[in-house]
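User: Last request for today: this protein with pyridoxal-5'-phosphate, please.
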Amino acid sequence: MQQQQKLIFEKSVSGRRCTQLPACDIENKTALPQDLLREEAPLLPEIAEVDLVRHYMALSRKAHGVDNGFYPLGSCTMKYNPRLNEEVAAMPGFTDIHPLQPTASVQGALKVMQLLQQYLAEITGMDAVTLQPAAGAQGEWTGLLLIKAYHEAHGEQNRTKILIPDSAHGTNPASAAMCGFQVVHVPCTEDGFVDVAALRSLAGPDTAGLMLTNPNTLGLFEKDSLEMADIIHKAGGLLYYDGANLNAIMGIARPGDLGFDVCHLNLHKTFSTPHGGGGPGSGPVGCKKALSPYLPNPIVEDENGQLTLNFDNPNSIGQVKAFYGNFLVYLKAFTYILSSGADGLKQASQGAVLNANYMLYQLKEIFHLNNTFPCMHEFVLSMEDLKEETGVSAMDVAKALLDYGIHPPTMYFPLIVPEALMVEPTETENKETLDFAIETFRKIKEEAFADSAKLHQYPLQTPVRRLDEVQAARKPILKYQKSENQ
Ligand SMILES: *Cc1c(COP(=O)(O)O)cnc(C)c1O
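Assistant: Here's the final one, the structure of the complex with pyridoxal-5'-phosphate:
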């Protein structure tokens, strides 16, 4: 087992410093009123530069990321992010500008935004795009506000319900509720597709729209997508496409062509911005012409060859994010799209689907499969049989994978699959990595039958073992607590 890492406060030695500053030669050091000054010096770690560097290097090595191992997190597209993106996003011409600079002095940055909007409109088959939302969930909320604004502008305030399939990502019903819509669940059929007959019976004059993820969270392409679009449109509703994970269809099929009116993308998933550490992300929203008057302010506009920002669109739902959103993330997506080209984006999707099917084809011989085969860019295994036969759960399997250097797949999602493990290998993994992962799954299953007690013990090699997750979420310790004798 690894040695427990000391906290930086525990490494602190009084008087030790990273830097040496010349003595202060200002007489009246502070003009602050005496009663506002601290009585005690703040508790800060005192450490030399080399120890500081070692401390953070050691911490970074303890974290698992796409740069140090396989990370098949279903629905989240943890793929390799080309370093070129970072280089472009770090160019001083982009990093040294300020959001309040006159637009005449940031024409290049505005051009990047305008072009990225055009590329994303082309990729999704939409007429207009806003880059503002900071994440997928905020994109959903923005897109649903567009739907709401549209219905209100057409005197249809009675359209208060959003239909959402049972297999949807949890953010879908949450976003709909945040917009003041009532969420209506649409059941799935046995084989994991939206129940079209049920959808037909639920659609009506109170339907504001349908939110659909396609391929759905089981990794299946909803083959009745066009029929569903027809049902919703005939009922007077609009269609929202959750494109957080466009990795299976990018360059191949377009939500706009499939009858969708609004969609969001996650630049921090499909378009290769690192994510998982809490951001920054970006969830642009594309829409059809009929919804474009309601897009958030400001909009990049071309005025006789000069790019400007229009903050005064009268019908806009307003601003959804400070300034213009997360600009440096746009640069990474922009670089990824330009360096991949149309062919490259299509190849990425094809590779993602091929890799998922390669893994699924072999894993379906080992575990209970909760999908039909073939799949799109991801698939869902169920550990229900394994649990019945050995007592080993999806959680145990996930924890065992950690010891083999593999980040666990998404667990217990989608909710409609018992003991679910949702695997998304992504296109950037080679055959050797996929073979290693398949072999590891096989080994873990054998071990479950041979010594199930050991499976409940995993992980044995990680810096921390099994944590009390509820306690960690509800009562996190985020601040160093000074002990009595310090
Ligand atoms: C990740 C994801 C979201 C939410 O995106 P965030 O950026 O995490 O808010 C929504 N829908 C699906 C299908 C996703 O995979």
